[in-house]
Amino acid sequence: MALFPRRQRQPRPKHHSFSVPTTQRTVVVGPEHNPSFWNPNRIGARPAPEDFLLRLREVDPDNLVDIRWNPITERWAAFMRKPRFQSPLCQGWQLLMVIQHNDGRYMPLDERTLAALYQASGRRWGNGREYWLAIARQMEREQQSRHRKNLQDSVDRAMPFFEHSQISVSGCGKSSGSKFSTYHS
Fold first, then answer.
1. What share of the chain is helix, strand, coil (3-state, %, to 5)?
2. Can you list the pairs that 158-165 forms with residues at least 24 positions away whose Cβ atoms lie under 8 Å?
């Protein structure tokens, strides 16, 4: 006989008190939900208004960029003609950008769109080397700006301590000389 009798284990419940709900079926979306689906080759893809296309041809005279309406997301999308680009949804066209604000709101077709397309075009820089040099200059400017800001932040944090550590004459009225020379001579 043992001093401490063994207790019988209680059987574990088959159903735990905590469970994660799962859905029985998954929602399958069609290819029309992909932004590349509504490309210029797609029948039924609505082109941009004619007046905007005329202004677009001033920025892109080679006719490499086209704008189409996506009825699912209700946003305009810019596509670039690229014959080497082949995908099941869009042959010969690559999606450049969905035209919308940074927070996802609708943005109409206007000069901001033309400016963004010009920024992305190779015509702006002339060749790849000029583009690379422009990117390098931009990176250098940003690095210098960060360095100046960090230096200014360091100075701003250090100045109160520096001013506090300076020897000063205390009291009001006319100065009676250096505090250092009075007490440390």
1. 40, 15, 45
2. none
Domain boundary among 109, 124, 139: 124
Q: Closest Cα to residue 99, out of 43, 29, 35, 53?
A: 35
pTM exceeds cut of 0.70: no
Residue 95 near residue 36 (C-beta atoms within 8 A): yes
Tens-digit pLDDT profile for residues 84-105: 888 888 889 999 999 999 898 9
45 and 119 part of one domain: yes
The CA distance from 161 to 27, in Å, is 63
Examine the domain organization and report whether 86 and 144 are in the same domain.
Answer: no
Q: How many CB atoms sit inside 10 A of residue 98's CB?
A: 14
Extended strands (E) in 15-173? 65-70, 75-86, 91-99
**Residue 61 sits in the same domain as residue 107:** yes
Report whether 73 contacts 35 (CB < 8 A): yes
